[in-house]
């Protein structure tokens, strides 16, 4: 999948709370209405995000990093899919 924007949420502020952004690729670990990609962001060491390298223009992460036990693999994945230079 090619991304122009990527919207990433944690479970505590997820699609269940209505945090779906139109025009963005919405990611959650729960398959709820408006979620485009269902994946566990804790598992980025074993499962890459299904987005092409250098395909995201912008990320919006809200209340996420503090909930990830080991954030480095997620950050590496975000770096992989980011277009450079990236704006956050």
CATH class: Alpha Beta
The string of secondary-structure elements, in order, is: EEEEHE
CATH superfamily label = Vaccinia Virus protein VP39
The largest sheet has its strands arranged as: 3-2-1-4-5
Based on secondary structure, the structural category is alpha/beta
**Beta-strand content:** 25-35%
Q: Count the E strands.
A: 5
Q: What is the domain tally?
A: 1
Round the mean pLDDT to the nearest integer and report it: 79
Looking at the structure, the CATH topology is Rossmann fold
Descriptive overview:
- The chain is built from one helix and five strands, in the order ββββαβ.
- It is α/β, with parallel strands linked by helices and 88 residues long.
- It has one domain (5-87): Vaccinia Virus protein VP39 (Rossmann fold), CATH 3.40.50.
- The longest helix has 11 residues, at 71-81.
- It is globular.
Essential attributes:
88 residues, alpha/beta, Rossmann fold, five-stranded parallel sheet, 1 helix, 12% helix, 27% strand
Give a quick rundown of the structure:
The protein is α/β, with parallel strands linked by helices. It is built from 1 helix and 5 strands; from the N terminus they run ββββαβ.
Secondary structure layout plus pairing:
Blueprint: E1 5-9, E2 25-28, E3 37-38, E4 56-62, H1 71-81, E5 82-87
Parallel strand pairs: 1-2, 1-4, 2-3, 4-5
């Amino acid at each position: 999948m090619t991304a122009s924007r990527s919207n990433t949420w944690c479970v505590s502020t997820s699609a269940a709370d209505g945090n779906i952004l139109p025009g963005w690729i919405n990611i959650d670990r729960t398959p709820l209405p408006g979620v485009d990609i269902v994946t566990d962001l804790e598992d980025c060491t074993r499962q890459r995000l299904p987005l092409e390298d250098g395909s995201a223009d912008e990320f919006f992460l809200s209340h996420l990093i503090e909930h990830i036990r080991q954030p480095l693999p997620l950050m590496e994945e975000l770096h992989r899919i980011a277009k450079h230079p990236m704006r956050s």
